[in-house]
Amino acid sequence: MSGTVLTGAAAAALHRDDPERRPLTQKSLNDDILRMIAKPGPVWIAVFAFDLLVLLVGGLCLRNQIVLGLGVAGYTRPVMWAAYITNFVFWVGIAHCGTLVSAILFLFRSHFRRAVYRVAEAMTVFGVLTAGLFPLLHTGRPWLGYWLVPYPTQRGLWPNFRSPLEWDVFAVTTYLTVSSIFFVVGLIPDVAAARDRATGKVLKTLYTALSFGWSGGNNQWKHYYGAYLYFAAIATPLVLSVHSVVSWDFAVSQTAGWHNTIFAPYFVAGAIFSGVALVINLLIVIRKAFRLEHIVTTDHIEKLSKLVLLTSTIVGYSYLTEFFMAWYGPSNAERDTFLFRYFGHFWWASWIMFTCNVILPLLLWFKGVRRNLPVLFVLMLFVNVGMWFERFVIIITSLARPFEPYAWGVNYRMSWTEAGITAGAFAWFFMFFLVFVKVLPAFSITEIKETLPVPRRRKG
Amino acid sequence: MTREAVLKDIASRIPGRRDPRVSMIWLALIAVGLVAFVALLATQPLRAWGAYGVNMIYFLGISLGAAVLASAIRLANGRWAGPVLRIAESLSAFLPYGIAFVVIMLVAGIWTYLPWTHTAVLARQKPYLNVPFLYARTLVGLGLLWWLVRDLVRTSLRSDVYLLKDHVSPELRAEYEKLSQGWRGEEAEAAWQKHRLALRAPQICLVYAFVFTVFAWDFIMSLTPTWVSGLFGWWVFMGAFLSGIAMTALLSTRLRQARGLAAYITPTHFWDLGKILFSISIFWVYQFWAQYLVIWYANMPEETWWVFLRFEEPWRKLAFTTFGFVFLIPFLGLMNKTSKTNPFWLSLFSVIVMAGMWMERHILVMPSVNPDVRWVGLPEIGVTLGFLGVFGWAVQGFLAKYPAVKVVDALAGGDAGHGH
After folding, report:
1. H or E stretch including B383?
2. What is the Cα–Cα distance from B144 to A370, expressed in whole angstroms?
3. With 0-12 CB in 10 A as exposed, 13-18 as middle and 19+ as buried, what is B359?
4. In which residue ranges of chain A is pLDDT below 70?
């Protein structure tokens, strides 16, 4: 008898040392999560200041480009789409994970999403906001961006609906709308909890507005859950549609290396791949920084890393199919493009892509790697390097090798302006994200509470 | 019900031997199929092998698709399927027959069926389009898949037959003893089973995707060696997955009634099966559209002809009917909850999807075999009935011997993991 007690006490002591087993109750959950919303500490301020500095550099580069023209962006005939479109596709891809985690996994009743979905959704909204910058910057005169929107004008200006780029306008704005609504709806009960604790006037007003008069009544919960299911159903097809439409920017053309029917599902898988990888990176940092290991456990992260493995496999399948089709199919241009891609001027970019997206993620087959967070963190960084290069390789190698051989040999080089704006985009994204973790509840108190045991007078 | 009562109840619902009347139906169908095939072979050999190829792909697809369903649910830690997993597994009983059909095709059929075996092959395609390599990749791929699926099914059966072996009729006992040989106690077995299934499930999904892709290239796409579509293999194997889901759903509704399994297979299971049927049907049309849009928009004659051939007479009606059966009707029909939970409606839509997939395999294969005449008619239905007979015979044999529901999950209460 005493032996069992000792073991129990020893086990409890052990749990106190293991941050993943810290006790979690109805009250401590609120405390743990709302504690994040506090006066920022020195580390946060330092990171934020650095972020703004990078953003400033990006802004100066943008000023440079606006004043001097798009020539400073490294565009050289025939490569007239380059880093900006790469960034656009990259950030749209990042934005994919949120809706996958919040809508599709919700419909699949995958409960592990509860602990991670808010971060993923926030990333989605900010990812789309970042992606949306690039088509505008790429036009050279971003202040005329509203020309993309179809509305009757006396100028008789009407966008070309047959252009896939115009489809993008619709796909991306729809996605932004739905993912923002989803994000805001999911926040309501949690923001209400924050509102009831807020002391500062500004935050109190913000939370009051965002909680839409939430009082937690039965009827409100009923409508809340109804709406959530409804939005999940609406958001699900968007996960497939947005990146499919983005892929058609390339696939519907006749350009070798772009024209491939596999592009739509392959891009969607790649987008989820990079999005989930970034979510893992963010979660690993947040759980460490805010001491939330008991809320976002290694199990949650392992499940996300299995999603990365699955999508990596799909991406690998698509690469192999592409090679095969290029070799086997009727088009000489296609075959030549693939040889150029892997052995030509940009061979290094292609091999970075292949290594980071297909070979390195093979490590995820090992449970030990999936549960080793430092290793996983580094691996996920490689995934996103690989996914950035995937878009780079697709866009640039195909454009650099057009049908007319006279244009060959003039090879694209990324300019400092483009590099600055690319870095600025990361800063822009992290600016939103850093503010988010300090202002809004970064984890869903509501949904995590559903998983907690109900306190009862007697056990059993 | 107590544990003992559940075990007794399930055991009492295992027939033990084939129902002779049903067996007669399968044998009669096989006879019809043989007559149709031989008659066609004597008069129009190309048409005969066309029909054979379509059904080989179709029925092998159902069987493998269902095995993948059983693996994919485990891979995703899905607990909703519970007892229904066994029904998906039972369809894999056709696999050895299906592979035998492929072997017959490889030995006797390809010389008529695959044009590149008897016409000139482009020099650069020769390393791929040659008979020895075709033999090797087809047999190794399907053999590996069969081995994996067989191991999955036997692993899944092992704990069930151990639990049931004291309750089943004496003629099954020997078989049950053999399958559960060397039992190491419930806990050790459960841990071993969990580990083994966690290993096999991803292996099957992965190998299936690659093997069926190559299978689709070899037996559909290479009928016209100069036409390619990157998504084609993926689309074909998702279609096979869809037909596997539809057959599982149909068989679940059927077995629930025929064997009185209402206590184990509940409308909630039908609801979930209906949802996955609905979603994969949408995925089918998504992948169709992803190919169609890209080909239509780029308008390159080397690929548009393949698509337009199927949208023009004499194939037009079949193409649009396929679209309606695989996507439009199930999309509209399965949208509400009642049609998913009600066994009649669910089985009706499953049959529609399967009929649609059967037509889809025809519209993929037949215009490439002979573009001018619509070779989809009574003789093809005859050949199909023959395949159906073999399929029914195989699955009947499995379900006569083994429980139709997964005992372990039935004991655990069946539909765990419901509610959001």
Report:
1. helix B378-401
2. 27
3. buried
4. 1-16, 458-460
Burial tier of B335 (Cβ tally within 10 Å: 0-12, 13-18, 19+): exposed
Looking at this protein, which amino acid is placed at residue B180? S
Across the interface, whether the CB atoms of A330 and B80 are under 8 A apart is answered: no
Taking Cα atoms as reference points, which of A396, A431, A384, A332 lies closest to residue A48? A431
Shortest CA gap A339–chain B (Å): 15
DSSP state of A77: T
Residue ranges and CATH numbers for the domains of chain A are 48-447 (1.20.1630.10)
- Binding-site residues on chain B for chain A (CB distance < 8 A): 76-78, 80, 124-125, 128, 206, 209-210, 213, 226-234, 282, 286-287, 290-291, 293-295, 297-298, 300, 302, 417-420
Judged by a CB distance cut-off of 8 A, whether residue A418 touches chain B is no
In chain B (420 residues long), the average pLDDT of successive 10-residue segments reads 85 88 96 96 94 96 96 86 89 96 96 93 91 96 96 92 88 88 88 92 95 96 93 96 96 91 89 93 95 94 93 92 96 92 94 96 94 89 96 95 87 51
Residues in chain B: 420
In 3D space, the residue among B84, B24, B33, B418 whose CA is nearest the CA of residue B244 turns out to be B84
Residue B84 CA to residue B407 CA, distance in Å, equals: 10
Number of H helices, E strands in chain A: 19, 0
Could you tell me which residues are beta bridge partners of residue A79? A76
Task: Report phi then psi at A421, rounded to 5.
Answer: -70, -35
Place of tokens 């559909």: B220
Nearest to A261 among B128, B291, B302 (CB): B291
> What pLDDT sits at residue A37?
83
Q: How many CB pairs under 8 A join A and B?
A: 82
Distance, in Å, from the CA atom of B120 to the CA atom of A370, rounded to the nearest integer, reads 50
Q: Which residues of B touch A322 (CB under 8 A)?
A: 230
**What is chain B's Cα-based Rg?**
22
Strand, helix or coil for residue B377: coil
For the CA atoms of A329, A332, A333, A339, the dihedral, rounded to the nearest 10 degrees, stands at 90
Q: Residue A262: which of B76, B78, B231 has the nearest Cβ?
A: B231
Among residues A408, A263, A267, which one has the least CA distance to residue A336? A408
Written as one letter, the residue type at A152 is: P
Q: Are B135 and B104 in contact (CB under 8 A)?
A: no
Name, in order, each residue with C-beta under 8 angstroms of B22's C-beta and a sequence gap of 6 or more: B392, B396
pLDDT digits (tens, 9 = 90+) for A239-262: 889 999 999 999 999 999 999 999
Q: Are A95 and A124 in contact (CB under 8 A)?
A: yes
Rounded to an integer, what distance in angstroms lies between the CA atom of residue A268 and that of residue B346? 30
3-state secondary structure of A69: coil
pTM, rounded to two decimals: 0.93
Confidence at residue A12, expressed as pLDDT on a 0 to 100 scale = 54
Do you know the residue count of chain A? 460
Q: Find chain A residues with C-beta within 8 A of B213's C-beta.
A: 317, 321
Token pair recorded at residue B346: 């669910």
Tokens 């390789």 sit at which residue? A393
Please choose, from the candidates A325, A347, A327, A308, the residue with its C-alpha nearest in 3D space to the C-alpha of residue A251. Answer: A325
User: Of A377, A426, A418, A428, which Cα lies nearest the Cα of A396?
Assistant: A418
pLDDT at A13: 55
What single DSSP character describes residue A455?
A: P
pLDDT, residue A216, reads: 86
Distance of CA B225 to the CA centre of its chain: 26
How does DSSP classify residue B107? I
Contact between B385 and B32 (Cβ < 8 Å): yes
In the three-class reduction of DSSP (H, G, I as helix; E, B as strand; rest coil), residue A188 is classed as helix
Q: How far, in Å, CA of A31 to CA of A17, rounded?
A: 20
